[in-house]
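User: Could you check the structure of this?
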Amino acid sequence: MRFRCSVYIFAVLALLSCSCREKKAEVSHLTVANENVSEQTEQAVEVRVQELHESVFNHELLANGKLEAVKRANLKFLTEGVIQQVFIKESDKVVAGQRLAVLDHTQQGRLYAQSQLKYKQAVMDYEDQLLRLGYRMTDTNKVAKELKNVARLRSGLSQSEIELQRAEADLRATSIRAPFTGKIANLKAKVYNNSSESEYFCTLIDDTELVVDFLVLEQELSFIRSSKHLKVIPFNDKIVSYPGTIFSINPLVDKSGMISVKALIQNSDRSLLDGMSVKVMVQQSISKQLVIPKTALVERQGRKVVFTAKKGIAHWNYVEVAYENSIEYAIKRGLKPGDQIIYEGNFNLAHDKPIAIARQY
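Assistant: Sure, the predicted structure tokens are below.
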């Protein structure tokens, strides 16, 4: 009986010993797993850095504007009639004085010829009047002004000159000529139609110089006044830009708190068009600024943060932005010259996080 009890107690103790060894092994396994997880969590993040220096910052003001030709005219016939010929088409380049179209001028031509004949007859009668007074045409410098006026009236020379000038003007009015060098647009009239059927014949545009009209906020007025130059960028080609010079600032503020500004643009390659919408960029260089790329700034807890690298550890810095353009920030406070700012690999970075600086190429 005693022997059986001893065997039973030994078996129980053996089972308890095995159970303890298994639990210790399990605890040891979990400890190793946790250590591996910890090592993975603390793995260094690869980043790119650059040293911060004071430099020139290009302050920018962006706005949308519309282009308008400096010279633009809707050309009309000065008299009514049937259009006989049109010598141009849309987009044609014409020079000042070039004839663009002509009306049927049969009647005007006949009246002009008659006026010429009357004028020649009046000149002959004027000579006769001077001969009766004892003078020749070659002696007109010797004739008193009063006598010449009497001779002109009696001969009808004064009246015939007026009629000839009127007939000549009526004949000229049957043609349209370009008042300046430019490009044809909005050609409305057609051959054999009456000139009065259209509001105007065509539009003539000189696109060598254009004016861009854009709006700025009243708080941006001081920046505009201190800036003389800008550039415009077409929406259909964001690579090409055209320089311009501000020449007009409207002294009135509209109901929305906006001010109209105008600048002259040199359309060197004739790619800009009258009425085109463009992006306007006004720039001003500000020296001695701490300039960082926009990728270096991230939002943390609703505040602006820039990470810096110190001895393989990332440190975050709350910053205040002084100026901003399309690619950079100028930092007002929160950083200092010599800081190694992290501009790549910082999106999910945390404070005191181990980092590995990537090789710079």
